[in-house]
Every structure is written in structure tokens, then in C-alpha cells.
Amino acid sequence: MSEEPQNKGAGHRQRLRDKFLELGIEAFTDSEVIEVLLSFGTPRSDCKEAARAALARFGSLPAVLDAAPQELQQIKGMGGKNIFALRFIQGVARRYLKQRIVGRQYLRSAREVADFLIHSMRGLKHEVLTVVFLDAAHAVITSEVVAEGTVNVNTIYPRELVKEALRLNASALVIAHNHPSGALKPSEQDKALTRNLYLLGSFLHISLLDHLIVGEGDTVFSFAEAGLMSGIRAQCGRLLGSLG
């Protein structure tokens, strides 16, 4: 009698690998993607049921990747090594998206910048303010989180933001923050923050090009696209004119 193989799922995982090599990620269901990621942590374990349970609990692939470790631990069959695999691939994706935009001309790559911001802010339970610093040709220098917590005109320190812009020799900025509630409509505080930063930047010849609000899923509100930036430029222009 032949001895039963120790690793019963080896054939299944090999079929998934072959499927990816032949057809790409588009041929995979979200459950299969999660299963493969989990197997990176425990390559000799059957991760199919844990993947299905995680998807059923959180509802989508992004939600699984964004889930906190303590939430993932509640999934049957999900251990520390599996969670490490999920968190690691999430971190790799975030770094890839961030580095991909460096050197790109913002006006031509606004969608890629938005993709990075969505990925870096999606699923956060608190607000963060990220600044994308641009050079004189509006190419991306880098992006940094400059504030966490409640993001409004009373909690942002413009001096520190401008100090960093000067250190990087930035000529323009794009700011972005998330609304954990998922709402995209800018508040009066959001508008006031944008006016203040635009005005401060004007004194130092640093242009504020846009303010993005990241909502739920892949939704983004752009002050520039909505026409709010042109209104803010006009308001600040009148104010600066009266000072001159």
C-alpha cells in the first residue's frame, strides 16, 4: 500500500501557480488570491477555507488586506505566519505604488497618484494628511504623512509643512486626507485648511495644486476637478492684491 502524501494540498497549489503563470491574476477569484497569499506563510497547509472565511467576513480583497491583525486572528485557520504574509504583501504594494510615482509629472500621472493615496489611506480608522511634494516641473519628489488624527485647520501646523517643502526644494504641493466615514463632501474646515495652505504657499512661491479627499473604496474628491481650487485662487488673489 502506498503511503499517503504528507502535503495533500501540494497539487492544488501547483495548479494555482500554473494558472497564474498561464493566465495571470485576472483569472483568479478574490478567494484564490487570498488563498495563495496565506500559503506564503504556511506553504504546507490547506488555506482554502481560511481564505473563504476571511472573504466572507470582511467582504472584499482590499478589506481583508486592510484588516487589523487582531481581526484576522479571529478567522479559523489563520495564524501569525498567515497574517504576516498578508501584511507583508500589503506593505510591498504600498511601497510599489509610492515609488512608482516618484519622478512622474503630476498632471500626467494624477490617476497613479490617486491610486497610491487610495491604497495608503483606505481602511484607516483615523484621519491622516499626506502631502505630495513636486518640483518646478511638477514632477513628484516624494510624499509624506504630515499629520494624523483629526485633520482640520486647527490641527495642522503649516509652518512644519512649509519647512519640509523648503527642505525638499519643492515648488508645488498636492495635499490629501481621508474621511474614515466614507463621505466625500468637503467640510468647511477642509475648505478653510485649503485656503490657509494656499495663501501661505503663495507668500513663498509654492503652489498648492489640489486637495484630495479619499473616501470609501476607490472614491476620491478633487478640489481642482470640482472647481473649488479656482475659487480659492481667486479669493486669495484678491486678498494678496489688497495687501499689495
TrEMBL record:
Record family assignment: Belongs to the UPF0758 family.
Name the record gives this protein: MPN domain-containing protein
Domain (MPN): residue spans on this chain: 106-229
Alphabetized UniProt keyword annotations: Hydrolase, Metal-binding, Metalloprotease, Protease, Zinc
Matches recorded under SUPFAM superfamilies: JAB1/MPN domain, RuvA domain 2-like
GO molecular function: metal ion binding; metallopeptidase activity
BP term (GO), one: proteolysis
One Pfam match: RadC
InterPro entries, per database record: MPN, RadC_JAB, RuvA_2-like, UPF0758, UPF0758_CS, UPF0758_N
